[in-house]
Amino acid sequence: MDLRIRIADLMKEVGSSKDVEVAFDKPEITVGELLFKFPEPPVAELSITNAEESVLVRGILKGSAQTSCSRCLSPAMTEIKIKIEEEVLSIDEIESDDAEGLPEQYSHDYDSIDLSPMIEQSLIIDLPAAPLCKNDCAGLCPVCGLDRNLEQCDCELERTDPRWDALNSLKQGLSE
Ligand SMILES: [Zn+2]
Ligand SMILES: [Zn+2]
How far is the CA of 168 from the centre of ligand 1 (A)? Predict the structure, then answer.
């Protein structure tokens, strides 16, 4: 599906707006070291408004993504529900000196807007940095690598951080 939305009709009158529904066009996305796959394309329901100085894009992006649990590495699903609220300037304004530093892809050329980079950026910002298969995932044993959601191991999981040793000996000294 093309994520380029025609806005020529909106540019005729300030205040006019239209609703669009677009599906994100990539089957997966990488954020940091995590890969998120979309079983179904995430769908954005957006309202696009001619606000004279700019074009406003507002709405919500919904869907789900499959990734791996950051604790136990088994598959994890994450729900996508992202509010989108962006102000899109014209290509002329973006290229003027005042707007230096603004991303060029967030621009319209009076004829159309490409919503793809906006949706992609929203996903990158909002997808979880440490997804979990379930809230209380026990993770893998750091000693033997066993999935502690499935089995218990007998590994000693003592803190070996020397800063805690100092604190512990201090506590022992106090209780003696
Ligand atoms: Zn997990
Ligand atoms: Zn273990």
Answer: 31
